[in-house]
Amino acid sequence: MARKLSRASHPRLRSGLRSSDIAAGLAVATAGGFVCATSVGSGLAAPASSREVAAWLLTLLGYAGFVVGGIALIRADLLTHTLPNQTVAAVALWTAGALSIASVALGEWAALGAAWGAAIATLAVAFVCWWATAGALGGGDAKLLPIAVFATVWAAGAGAVPLSVGLFLMLLAGAFGLAGLVALIRRRREFAAGPAIFCAAIGGVALAPVLAV
Fold this sequence. Notes:
Layout: H1 19-39, H2 50-80, H3 85-106, H4 109-132, H5 139-156, H6 161-185, H7 194-206, H8 208-212
Helix pairs in contact: 1-2, 2-3, 2-7, 3-5, 4-5, 5-6, 5-7, 6-7
């Protein structure tokens, strides 16, 4: 969905991160991760054992990395209409890794399986859409979608997979619609999909406590 431009014209975007981006991302992610960790019914609300404390901290770190990396990806996508593979891979490994270890520490195998299952299914669907639309859905967008769904479904828990996926799709459709409207007003034929995907995921994670009730 995004046109690829030459990286040579934007040499400063290899990492995509500045100190201000990291500081803002950590602040937002810490607050969001705290709400998620203390609200989602996954045993993290009142950490008592060392395992629960470790899982609580891993949850914060996982979502902090997701937000910080997301800020870098949004910035790169808006300026170059590309999502750097290295940044997408780093966000995916950090987020999925930290949240998976948190689930293992708590023995939340059902929630972990649900998140991974949803992410794998999303990857398959995204790949088909990328192949069938001949690039209308960018390759970077197809790679970002699975980790966005993983973060959303993990926050909601195994008992709310259909609701969390449905919520993500609804938020994604709204974000795409808004981005398309802005592009139309600015008389552009294309828009960056990365910010829409990331914002839909953040909205899904923020509303996860409601779905988990």
